[in-house]
Amino acid sequence: MCKAVQEKLGIPALTAMHPLNPGVELARKKVYIVEAGDSARDMKRTVPRMVALANKILEKVPIGTPQEEGYLPRGIRINVRTENRGSRRAVDMLLKKLRGEPFVTELPIPQFDRVVPAPAVSVLSKAVIALVTEGGIVPKGNPDRLEAHNASKYCRYFIGNLKDLTGEEYQTAHGGDDPVYANEDPDRVLPLDAARLLEEEGAFGKLYDHYYVTVGNVTAVSSAARYGHEIGNLLLKEGVQGVILTST
Amino acid sequence: MVKEIERVGLPAVQICTIIPIALTVGANRIVPGVAIPHPTGDPKVSLKEEIEVRRKLLGQALRALAASIDQQKVFK
After folding, report:
1. C-alpha A205: how far from its chain's center?
2. How far is CA A228 from the centre of its chain?
3. CA nearest to B55 within chain A
4. Which secondary-structure segment (H or E) carries A133?
5. pTM for the full predicted model
6. Which terminal Cβ of chain B has fewer Cβ within 10 Å, N or C?
7. β-strand pairing of A14-17 with A155-158
């Protein structure tokens, strides 16, 4: 709602949420979200911070860091000048670490969870296998305008009648590496020709007649996770039993 | 992405070049690819040899899909 008020009415808005609230990911970049606890008891701590931040927004005073003001990090990078250059700060941080002294990282390393492996494909010779790629292979001309970096979507293309991808009909949209090789022969990223040979030989049952593609170049982890989740569900509904995903 | 596909219950294998990244992010089934700009290709060899490279990689990928695993594994 705050996002809508800001975008449609041009009125600054802020809110407070627990860090695990799903609304955080949806709104954090556009709306200041003060960090709240998991119960109303925490209001005593949260509301004064909201008031202080709201006053700063109204007075158009520069807003400090998330740690200073108590809002959830927005993932926005702002260049600032510091007293010491990066190399000095890195050495100082390392010395503290070696001495066992407390230190604060300037960039938190993201933690990735683990997924229990899905059950293996039981009868490969009968299995429907799908190809997916983060390497940006798209029909020539990139008709759906898949972005070269920070992809906002994934696309789905029919390959049911194809045995091979050629440079005349396909190209790469990926902007993160030298595109020459993929443009010459898109099978170098989406290996359709070899997949068809293995299908004919009975190495697996059938190649799913579409492939999914996105570009994994500077694409946010949260976006890629959403695409993977949606593609996985779509393929599962279509009776696909295994997925081979290529990435650059 | 491969981890999220696996999370819905579909075994998924990733062919990629920078294995440590795939391991860190949490892919369960990984097959080392050829190179970043051409994970399933090798421009230095003839087309016939390249197709053979792709067949071998896909063969490994299929073996990975058919393998029962309980933790991350790189299939070389």
Report:
1. 32
2. 10
3. A194
4. strand A128-133
5. 0.74
6. C
7. unpaired
Res A62: pLDDT: 87
Mutate to test the interface with B, among A177, A181, A246 (most CBs of B within 10 A): A246
Q: For B14-64, what is each residue's pLDDT tens digit?
A: 999 999 888 988 999 999 999 999 999 999 999 999 999 999 999 999 999
Name the B residues in 16-75 with CB < 8 Å from any A CB.
16-17, 22, 24-26, 28-29, 33, 36-43, 47, 50-51, 54-55, 57-59, 61-62, 65-72
Cβ distance A113 to B26 less than 8 Å, yes or no, reads yes
| A242:B10 CB<8 A | yes
List pLDDT tens digits, range A214-248: 998 777 777 888 899 999 999 999 999 999 999 98
Contacts of A35 (CB under 8 A, 6+ apart): A16, A17, A18, A19, A46, A70, A71, A72
Q: Which residue has the tokens 């200073």?
A: A68
b/e burial code for range A70-89 (CB count within 10 A of at least 16 → b): bbbebeeeeeeeeeeeeeee
Chain A closest-CA separation from residue B76 CA (Å): 15
CB A50 within 8 A of CB A14: yes
Report d(CA A152, CA A149) in Å as an integer. Answer: 9
pLDDT greater than 80 at residue A178: yes
DSSP string, B27-45: -SEEEE-SBTTBTT--TTS
Task: Find the residue in B nearest to A214 (Cα).
Answer: B1
